[in-house]
Specification:
Elements (H helix, E strand, L loop, with lengths): L7 H11 L16 H19 L1 H9 L2 E2 L5 E2 L4 H10 L18 H35 L2 H12 L3 E6 L15 E4 L5 E11 L8 E10 L10 E6 L1 E3 L5 E4 L2 E6 L10 E14 L5 H37 L23 H33 L3 H35 L3 H4 L5 H9 L8 H12 L6 H17 L6 H24 L4 H38 L3 H17 L2 H10 L3 H5 L6
Parallel strand pairs: 3-6, 4-6
Antiparallel strand pairs: 1-2, 4-5, 5-11, 6-7, 7-11, 8-9, 10-11
Helix pairs in contact: 1-2, 1-8, 2-5, 3-5, 5-6, 5-7, 5-8, 7-8, 7-9, 7-11, 8-9, 8-15, 8-16, 9-11, 9-12, 9-13, 9-15, 12-15, 13-14, 14-15, 14-16, 14-17, 15-16, 15-17
Length: about 600
Amino acid sequence: MPIYKAPVEDVSFLLNDVFQIDRYDNLPGFSDASADVRDAIIGEAAKLAEEVLQPLNRTGDLEGCKRHDDASVTTPKGFKEAFKQVAEGGWLGLSVPSEYGGQGLPVTLSQAVNEFQCSANMAFAMYGGLTMGATAALLVHGNEEQKKTYVPKMVAGEWTGTMNLTEPHCGTDLGLLRTKAVRQADGSFKITGTKIFISAGEHDLTDNIIHLVLARIEGAPAGIKGVSLFVVPKFLVNADGSLGARNGVSCGSIEHKMGIHGNSTCVMNYDNATGWLIGEENKGMQGMFVMMNEARLGVAVQGLAQSEVAYQNAAAYARERIQGRALTGAKAADKPADPIIVHPDVRRTLLTIRAFNEAARAMVIWTSLKSDVAHRSQDPKDRQAADDHMGLMTPVMKGYMTDMGFANAVQAQQMYGGHGYIAEHGMEQFVRDARIAMIYEGANGIQALDLVGRKLPRDGGRAVMAFFAEVGAFAKEHGGNEAMKPFVTPLSMALGHLQQATTWLMQNAMTKPDNAGAAATDYLHLFGLVTFAYMWAKMTKVAQDKIAASGSTSYLSTKLTTGRFFMERVLPETAAHLARIQSGCATVMELPAEAF
């Protein structure tokens, strides 16, 4: 059976030592997250993930969700009781303002908790994750009545939330959507249409489900400029907050899908359902983007989470599985063969995954802190810089972390040989579950195009120039430190590759847009590698300082070795990405369509 142990020590190292979260005590909510409070939250989150959620992961995958003749849906055995524990523990409102029933703590803590839950049971964690995303959209764009009506119940876990974007004919191109909204005399709208791929669209975990739905008001402009956002509850809500009549929204079917079987991915039918406008007419994407960006960061965490749990199981198996002898002679002479952990290629595989996991976790904490600054700081310059960072890094994190998270799950499965392909050990579930993260919330090719086409040139390249300056300053500051050279020298070289790629795009993409399209995915991965190298350089500097001050520990020495491995064996890939980018689009676009 699969195992999972939440990486509490690594999270604590990042929060306390690398990013020194106490420096942010001037921001609202941070002073309430003192070291002892953080330790308690992370410890309890780990316990919940390991003891409650993880045991339901495999059983939930096998049982799946079931739709009944009355269009109701039941979740796998144990999910309802587990969701009640999550709700009663206050986990859904960890970072929501206290005026709406939340605890107002930093988003940074919520993302750490999110990783634990997604590693333990990704399908289950999605119910709460989507609810928190819908809550965020309502808090930013909803009116006061909508906030008071829906948010406290969602924060309490009495109701859940969803996002309804995609339709059968339009996929990512939401300007083509056909779901219509007809204005009513009382200010409400009647919503009619079909949405597909709606995660957590119908279930038995809570009494009500609050759907956020994109639709086009009659007479609205064509394309994306005519899309509005509506709140459409499963059950209408009476003036006193009690539940009223069933609304005209139902689950038409549950999608038969590759993974995340424990989450009810539904086709949702809206038949004159009553909804209310969120924000301004024809500005629906502004409201939905709040939820989509929250979701994209959450999906990036899913990539890390599946990579982490797959790694833990692969490493445990490699220590126990005996097969062959070490190239340098028997290491377990009392046994008929050595454990496969002695083999260099096994270690290379495991270290590749581990080096990704630890850098990805650092990037999540780093970017989450920027999110907290963007939403909580009183300094306009700090907010702008943090918002720039979020805009630039969101496609990088979503694309790179889910691409590599899936690849790592496959590599971890490989450690088991044939045993990884059968269901008994759970590795094939990690592969299946990780695969969706590359697709939803904007397929990764779209993320790459967004990065090169929108995020790089935005505000004259202000965000990417700030990133270059920050990494360059770090390299300059520590380049003379002999102990840091194994980290700073490769970082500087990789940064140079990224700068060359950026310059090449500036010179060659404007006149020939296909150059940008052909380069986009390589550029995104190049950016991800450089960002991870920066994370590793920061982590190893702190580890060296702690060793100098208090002596070495197993954790710190392992951190340094893993960091060196990343710099030596993973980071050189930046040169290949640069070469592919600079080759242009000629061969990519040369063949006629019928030749494929």
